[in-house]
Amino acid sequence: MAKKIKDKERDSIDFGKSKIGPLFNRIFYPTLLSMVFASLFTVADGIFVGQGVGSNALAAINIVSPLFLITTGIALMFGVGVSVVASIHLSQDNQKAANINITQAFNVATLLMGIIVVAVYIFRVPFLQLLGSSDALLPLCQDYLLTILPGCVFIVIQMIGTFIIRLDGSPKFAASLEIFPGLLNIILDWLFVFPMQMGVAGSGIASSISCAVAAGLVAVYMFFRAQNVRLCRLKLSLTSLYLTARNVGYMVRSGFSSMLGELAMSMMLLTGNYIFIRELGEDGVAAFSVACYLYPIVFMINNSVAQSAQPIISFNYGAGNRYRVKSALKVSLRTATICGVLITAFLTLGTKPLVGLFLQADTKAYEIAIGGLPLFAYSAIFFALNVAIIGYYQATEQNGRATLCMLLRGLIFLVPAFLLMPQLMFPQGMWLAIPVSECMTLGVILLTSKGSI
Q: Which residues lie below 8 Å from residue 317, measured CB to CB, with a gap of 6+?
């Protein structure tokens, strides 16, 4: 009897009948909490390294950071993709198909990430040079890269797991996948960087350990606590492999724009690093790294809005309930607007104390960051609305629109903005490139969205 009551409580999230506002809030607040913790432990990395090792170490981590974004891009592509596909299957009472898709997502994504990790390890020096590392930063970049590579595979398991566990009706457990490992990462960061004096490598080791713990929690849930969805045994026949390839292709199409979102941030880092180091040297990259460390706060908070709305929209889209889909979109856009405004105000009003967390006040990098962060902060409101709308496109299988929007903000508008804005306004233009690209993307969305949202 106790088990039945527990299962009833766990299954009480009804995506098809519960009121949209309370339903969204029930998913959103645990998701927001987990996302904030995820961004805070990234910020903690920067604070400990900046204060305990120095600005060059901070710049080195910023050089390596595109690898993290590629990793999370792969994880989001499979996580969003399988969540959309499995949500539709569950709305149609096809639990077996949902379980097969979930198992395929874990297996293929983990294998793909493992191959990438091995390739990066073998070609690490040319890889770091491609990312824009100078000769002075190369040793620090290698120290950090080698220690975070194992964690990349665990990140994929962790992130896909959060989507699946949330879909299973356990948003609080999904939140714990960020909170507990995040706290562990902060403690280990401090321990390895300060008392043990392990430098930038200590920060990488702390990140890898915390990601491994998160992956372990996913395994515990999937094997012992999952109720509505679970892992299953896949056949190794040619027919099964063909079906796996077909299903993975479907997931990739549904989640590809999410990967492009991470690649957009990777392109932001890569292009920004090149421009800042060319114009302002290592101090410029260190200053830019402060914005890059704070950017996950912008991304995670707004991504929590999109991820909270996604299972509601996907489920009701699969069930053909257009009214509930539109209602969920309205709640998502309203919440995104509020979050965007609050983040812009936070970054603008808190510039000095925020920069001071990462850099010493008597350094050139500190002065550059103080002047640039308020300009960078304007990107938050445009980014918030872009992410919410793109999330809606993904959830309703408008994959072409979602992909186009990601390409606009991550490549088509961003790279020219970084190249041209410094010519028009120096040095302010370097910091305004991201807000300009996000604003232009939102403009295109609003001009072309008739009938699609």
A: 88, 325, 395, 396, 397
Cα Rg of the chain (Å, integer):
21
* Per-residue model confidence (pLDDT) at position 451: 59
* Torsional sign, CA 52, 58, 64, 69: positive
93-96-100 Cα angle (round to 5): 130
CA dist 333 and 408 (Å) reads 20
Whole-angstrom distance, CA of residue 79 vs CA of residue 164: 7
pLDDT at position 41: 67
Question: Hunting for tokens 């996950």 — which residue is that?
Answer: 296
What is the C-alpha separation between 252 and 255, in angstroms, rounded? 5
Alpha helices in 92-170 (DSSP H): 95-122, 124-130, 138-167
Helices and strands in the chain: count of H runs, count of E runs: 16, 0
Copy the structure tokens of residue 214. 């998160």
- CA–CA separation, 223 and 164 (whole Å): 13
DSSP character at residue 453: -
More confident call, 298 vs 373: 373
Question: What was the pLDDT predicted at 326?
Answer: 92
pLDDT in tens, 37-50: 777 767 777 788 87
Q: Which helix H or strand E contains 404, and what residues bound it?
A: helix 399-407
CA angle at residue 343 from 340 to 347, to 5 degrees? 140
The rounded distance, in Å, linking the Cα atoms of 215 and 106 is 11
CA atoms within 13 Å, Cβ hemisphere of 33: 15
The pair of three-digit structure tokens given for residue 37, joined into one six-digit string: 């913790």
Q: How far is CA 30 from CA 37, 126, 147, 156, in A?
A: 11, 41, 30, 20
**Nearest 5°: phi and psi at 355?**
-65, -35
